[in-house]
Design a protein that fits this description.
- By secondary structure, the chain is mostly helical.
- It has a domain at 312-332 and 357-397: 2-Layer Sandwich (Herpes Virus-1).
- The chain has 14 helices and 2 strands.
- Strands 1-2 form a two-stranded antiparallel ribbon.
- Helix 6 (125-153) packs parallel to helix 8 (197-230).
- It is elongated, with a radius of gyration of 29 Å.
- The two termini are 53 Å apart.
- The structure holds zinc ion (2 copies).
- The site of one zinc ion has 7 residues, from strand 2.
- InterPro entries: HRD1_E3_ubiq-ligases, TPR_SYVN1_N, Znf_RING, Znf_RING/FYVE/PHD, Znf_RING_H2, Znf_RING_synoviolin.
- It is found in: Endoplasmic reticulum membrane.
- Its EC number is 2.3.2.27.
Length: 397
């Protein structure tokens, strides 16, 4: 019973070790030299048998051994090209990035095996080449995704200008490649009907959605850095709406992916049967989308008109214990609106208060008091009073 999963894990580990050792420079050189010698000997053999170029080329494409030797050289060249591109755009990879990349490649390959069984009629050398190209481009999307996520973790002022240039160029290159290849796949499907190419159409549409997500996230983080630089750099007040923008970005991406998957799913279901290879992805995307929509609805209903719904706490209500239990800071009642005698001095102060997090103490229906901002970020996750959230689902009442 357990033999199959164990065997799969062992195969996976061996493959990953082989890939890792293949990627190290020394072995890559050895492998390249051997591949080149093999391909050259195949060409030399064909040349010796057929004096003219055309017959030699025909012989090369007909004999399985020569095709294999040439394909192997092609694989080697792709590997080197990939390494060069990776060095240009990402520099050395961190071990966690390498591990995640191999994990993703592995998942993708195993799921693609299922797709190959659906499209076994389309399985020919051009199909394999297209698949290689897809995997190549996908790997760069994955690496870029890791880097954009990493960028958000870098403390102010964020990564240097070299990072931004490389990410910008990658957005352009990958975006154009995705769009060109998606239009190719769509044109092919429209012309020849639903075949193996539809697999690539689906993949490139998903890649475009992923890239759009990365561009939006990158813009959000860049805006956050710019915003901080205008407000005192390191000590700038945090941008309160950032999490909301990231949330909407993810929601949009999930929606686009779900749409693409459903279209693909229906296309395959009506022409070829159940598309086993994307069931996991469809399920994960649908679940994530539903969760996000539910969170959004809950959050919107909980934070609607917060300022009007929850009254400001007065100094008397605050009493002796002024600590907000969410942030453990003291709370101070909002200063009574000043007499408009000195509007010139009042204006900048009011502006500053609006700019940073809103720290006005707010009273919940149950009488508990928290900072406006603390309450809002709490309500993003839970729709209950922070003091009694275990016991009551709605504001202790
Ligand atoms: Zn607080
Ligand atoms: Zn309460």
């Amino acid at each position: 019973m357990d033999a199959l999963p164990l065997l799969l894990i062992r195969i996976r580990r061996t493959t990953l070790t082989a890939l890792t050792s293949l990627a190290s420079a020394n072995r890559l050189a050895t492998y390249g030299l051997l591949s080149l010698l093999l391909a050259l000997s195949a060409v030399a053999h064909a040349w010796r048998q057929y004096a003219n170029f055309y017959s030699a080329a025909v012989f090369l494409s007909r004999s399985a051994g020569s095709v294999l030797a040439l394909a192997n050289l092609g694989f080697f060249c792709t590997l080197v090209f990939g390494r060069v591109m990776q060095t240009i755009f990402f520099g050395p990879l961190r071990p966690s990035e390498v591990e995640r990349l191999y994990d993703r490649i592995w998942y993708f390959l195993t799921e693609s095996l299922l797709a190959f069984t659906i499209f076994r009629d389309s399985f020919d050398p051009p199909f394999v080449l297209s698949f290689g190209l897809l995997l190549f481009l996908k790997s760069f999307h994955w690496l870029l995704q890791d880097r954009v996520e990493w960028m958000d973790q870098v403390p102010y002022p964020g990564p240097g200008w070299g990072f931004h240039v490389r990410v910008g160029v990658l957005f352009g290159l990958l975006g154009s490649a995705d769009v060109v290849l998606l239009s190719w796949a769509v044109a092919e499907v429209l012309e020849e009907g639903v075949g193996g190419v539809v697999l690539f159409g689906n993949e490139y549409a998903i890649l475009i959605a992923t890239l759009l997500n990365l561009i939006l996230r990158y813009s959000i983080v860049t805006y956050d850095i710019r915003r901080a630089s205008r407000r005192g750099g390191e000590n700038a007040p945090p941008w309160q709406d950032k999490s909301m923008w990231i949330f909407y970005t993810e929601l949009l991406t999930d929606f686009l992916k779900l749409l693409t998957y459903l279209l693909f799913f229906l296309l395959i279901l009506t022409t070829h049967g159940l598309p086993l290879n994307i069931i996991r992805e469809v399920y994960l995307t649908a679940r994530s989308f539903v969760t996000r929509v539910r969170d959004l609805i809950r959050y919107r209903s909980a934070t609607r008109d917060m300022d009007a719904r929850f009254p400001d706490a007065t100094d008397a209500q605050l009493g002796g214990d002024r600590v907000c239990i969410i942030c453990r800071d003291e709370m101070h009642a909002r200063a009574a609106p000043a007499i408009p005698a000195q509007p010139a001095q009042q204006a900048p102060a009011a502006h500053q208060a609006q700019d940073g997090p809103n720290m006005t103490p707010k009273t919940l229906p149950c009488g508990h008091i928290f900072h406006f901002q603390c309450l809002r970020s709490w309500l993003e996750r839970q729709q209950s009073c922070p003091t009694w959230y275990v016991l009551f689902s709605v504001f202790c009442t």
